Structures are given as structure tokens and as C-alpha cells.
Fold:
Amino acid sequence: MPSVCSLADVAFAVDAALDDEELTHLHRQAFRDCVDGFVPWTRRLGRHSICWVTAHVGQRLVGFVNVIGDGGVHAVLLDTVVHPAYQQRGIGKELVKRAVEEARTLGCRRVHADYDDRAADFYERVCGFSSGASGVRRLA
Structure:
């Protein structure tokens, strides 16, 4: 656990090489009830993402956000995560900001965010998203 860490200590990168085990571990730390087993992140990102943004403190992966697209003007933020020991330092906000900027650079005109009620304050108040009518159907 970090004793002191500020946003100045964090290195952000777009489309940086990732280690599947490390990213699975990060998600498991933040979403304990939602990650079972190994996740083949590298394969998934290569097939479905238009970009992703990572956050590292030293060699440690502490944050991640994935951006998928429709091949046109829409992008969707998925899997935004900051290690619990590094939260409340602006890392999540900066990840989202950089992901939105990269989506704009790639030609997207709208960025949607996939989040549940627990994350509404972060996305809406902190990151400037607005809620809208949409539907979600859980398949499993």
C-alpha cells in the first residue's frame, strides 16, 4: 500500500503493452465479486478495443480504462478501474479524461460510459457525463 502518492507520481499511457495476469489482478482487487479466474485481456483488447489507457506508479499497474467503438462516431468506456490503495487521488478522473481525448482523436463524437449506480457520482459529477435513458439486460 502506498504511503504517499500524488497524481504527479503516476505515469499514464495510451495502448501500452499489458500483462494479462497483472490486469486481472488489478480488476480482482477492485471488483472482488466480479472477476473469476484468468482473463485474456490482451486478446480481448486486440479484438474489440479502439484504445485503452493505463496508469502506473513505478512498475505497478494501478489504473486502467478500456475504450471500445462502433467503427464510427460512438465510443464506450468499459472496465474503468483504480487499485483501491490508489483511489481518491485523481487517477480515475485522469484515466477517463485521457480516454475521452483519445476517442476524440480517433474520430469519435460521442463517448458513453458503462457504469452502475455505485459509480454514478464519479462519472457524472467528477467526469462530466450525464445519465440518459438506456437499457441493460443481464445475460448471466
Observations:
- The chain has one domain: 9-126.
- The first strand starts at residue 11 and ends at 14.
